[in-house]
Amino acid sequence: MTVEESLKQLIVERLFLEIKPAEIETETPLSEYGIDSFLLLELIVAMEEIFEVKFEQTDITSDTLRSVASLAALIGAKKGS
Fold this sequence. Notes:
Mean pLDDT: 95
Radius of gyration: 11 Å
Shape: globular
Number of strands: 0
CATH class: Mainly Alpha
CATH topology: Non-ribosomal Peptide Synthetase Peptidyl Carrier Protein, Chain A
Low-confidence stretches: none
CATH superfamily: ACP-like
Distance between the termini: 22 Å
C-alpha cells in the first residue's frame, strides 16, 4: 500500500467520513471533503502515530495540509530526514 493509499484509508477511518478511500482524489483539497481545521488536528495526530513521524510547528502550513499529495510529500520528507 502506498503512502497516499494509507492516508486515504486513515482519513476515512479516523475522521469518520461517509465516503470510500478510493473516492478521495490525491490532488483535491481536503476542504472539499468537509475536513476543517479541527479535523486536520486529529489527522496530524493520527499520521504521527501511524507513520511514526513527528511534525514540528513549522511543518504545519496550509500548503502541507492541502491534499493527500501534499501530506504524502510531508511524510516522505520527514521519513527522509
